[in-house]
Structures are given as C-alpha cells and as structure tokens.
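New to this. Please check this fold:
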Amino acid sequence: MKVVDLSHSIEPGMPVYPGTEGPRFERANTIERDGFAERLVTMYSHTGTHMDAPAHIFPGAASLDRLPAGRFAGRAVVLDVRSLAGAPGAWPRIGAAAVSAIVPRLAGAAFLVLRTGWEAHWGEPRYFEGFPTLDEAAARALVAVPGLSGVAVDAISVDPVDSRELPVHRVLLGAGLVIVENLRSLAEVGTDEF
C-alpha cells in the first residue's frame, strides 16, 4: 500500500490563519543536561493541516476526541475543480452543480477531497485571499450523502477568510461532518479516489 502524507510540516514561520500566532518550539530538555531530548511545542489547534470538528463552531458539540477513530479513515473521492479557476483572486464559489456531478461516486466513501490547486500558493500572502470555497448549496448537497464523514480541501478554509457567519462550516459541522483544511501533495493521490 502506498502512503502519502497530505499534511504540511509544523515549523517556525509557517503560514497560519490571519490573526493567529504561529507555532513556538522551545528546548525543554537536552541529552547533555537531562539524559534525553524533549521540546515544548505551543500552537493553536488549527495550525497547518488540521481537522475541524463540530465543537469548532457549536458550543457543546463533539470535539475530535469525542468522535470515534473510525471517522478519520476511509475511502476518499477526489473532486478536481482546478478547471473552475478564474483570474487570480477571482475564484467562483464551488457550487452545487459541481458537487452534484460527483454525488453518485460518493456512495460508500468517507471523504470528499476538493483538489483546487490552491496548495501551490502555500507560503505566499495570496494563499489567504481569493481562494476557492464551497457555497452553501454545495455543502447542503454533501451533507445529504449517506455515510460521508468529512470534506477536505487544499486551501485555508471552506469559507472565505473574511466570513463572520461561516455558513459552509455551519452546514457541514452542523450535520456532524468534519472538515480537513490545508492539504498538500494532492497530485500524488491522483484524480479519482484513494
């Protein structure tokens, strides 16, 4: 079985959601002084590639540690939407029409992975501006798919960075799905399923 790491490395100076502090690493113990090496890592839970649970938006809802481990693994279907790209910063929202076309392939799948190509802008200021997002109708179409555990994307969020209401988060997380953000290396998993 081929294993592909789709996560970004956690390191000092890495891109983080606007307004969030970056991760910090401190030497806590050294081999010379303590006989073993250990680092203290301080970071926000949404640093780098991460998963949003319903508790991210809804008070008292399930956090990741309260979801069964089986919810984090399974067959993923890739929806390659790179062809929808407009001019830089002018991505249209990914709508229900694009998602509906793939719904039959989602039967028995655990995850839908949106391959937008936005990961190419990781580390650039534009990564946080004009990135592709779902619209509410697309999110509603996805929560109607039986057995779907989550939606993943190679961008910073499924909602625009300036959104205060977070409508796509609310639809997906409100239905109990998880959201995976900031994926990388999607070219290595192909354009169908993995």
Notes: The two ends are 11 Å apart (CA to CA). DSSP finds four helices and seven strands in the chain. The longest strand covers residues 24-29.
